[in-house]
What we know:
single chain; alpha/beta; TIM Barrel; 2 domains; 8-stranded parallel β-sheet; 17 helices; 53% helix
Amino acid sequence: MSAADAPLAGLLDRLAPAWAAEAAVAGAAEPGRQPVHTVYGGAHLFRAATPHRLGELALAAVDRFAPDGPALARALDWPREGEEDRRRAEEIHARVVAKLRREPVEDFRIDFEDGYGHRGDAEEDGHAETAARELARGRREGTLPPFVGIRVKPFTPELAGRALRTLEIFLATLVAAAEGGGEGALPPGFVVTLPKVTAPQQVAVLVAAFERLEGRLGLPPRSLALELMVETPRSIFAADGRVALPGLVAAAGGRCRGAHFGTYDYTASMGITAAEQRMDHPACDFAKQVMQVALAGSGVWLSDGATNVLPVAPHREAAPTAEQEEESRRAVHGAWRLHARHVRHSLAGGLYQGWDLHPAQLPSRFATVYAFFREGAEAAGTRLRGFVEQAARATLAGDVFDDAATGQGLLNFFLRAAACGALDDEEARRLSGLAPEELASRSFPSILARRAGAAPAEA
């Protein structure tokens, strides 16, 4: 029999290694809501009421420095000449205030690294226990944000042992303080952040620790998830020149939820001077684009870094003079504008999450995110309705519609906008033209199948 007569199906065996390699990159993140930010604070300061307290401080900053829509527009340097500009600013201002009252923090990281510092073992042991008990109390009292976790110290020769000890003490205390024991100990969205990752072996050791702790503490198998902090050049490119990120994610064995960029450690490791260490530096943009390319389709959420110029008023007197209050206003507005520019830069680049360091950054974060999504909602809705209508007609006619990826991208726009509060449910339905159950499906192919009267194909 000639080669031309051989069954073609046998050729598929050659693809098995490529399929396996692609599957190995898949992360633990389920399709669903991604927080717009991660707020972090030192573990020694964390209390069950911390997220609520951050909201109170953020609202106080709004009351003082942006009490209404026009003031917010001035603060963030938005257009404010026409009636439409004023209406838009008032609308966003109202949404920001409502958000800060309802859910001021979407993701909080109890920090045992940069925000905590180096302390004696006994002191860190105590803080690990206290923070875990406060987290359990916050869950009982309903004060936790939708996502929460801890950041341990890096797995360096000097600190790896300390990091594992903190992890063990924290989780053991959390299980002991939880109602129902290990099965219900972890809050929804709980994650462990590993900073300054440079090698797959560090990730593998954390996963091995997870497995042992899950078994010993009665936690459900594979219930512990991790995030990687991308803070060094070796997190982007390995020593042999290969892109490092797929190997780091693969070492997590499907437990990697996110990869977070660390602006200041990364720029420092690149030899960039302190004056030029900023989120929108070209070196940072390059690294984040490598992250996007390397992890596209993996299910791993990507996050940008933080703005380290904080909106802190220089005058905190109970009754500042008019000159002092104006100086404070200029300082806070300047920091808000910088933060807003960085957030907008991230959003435009396809990074929908970032880190916030101070409660007064929450107003500029939410205002910028809301403005970004509301500005694009009409155009995105028109495009999405057109895609759905055209695709449904094509499907009914038996033709092939090959732009589902664009349709899914437009659907994701509305899912993100609704999840963060930029659009309410009614606005998302009206602008997208989709029924509630269609939005809830989170799948453009499923929407097309529903419109065509056919069941979606199996993945």
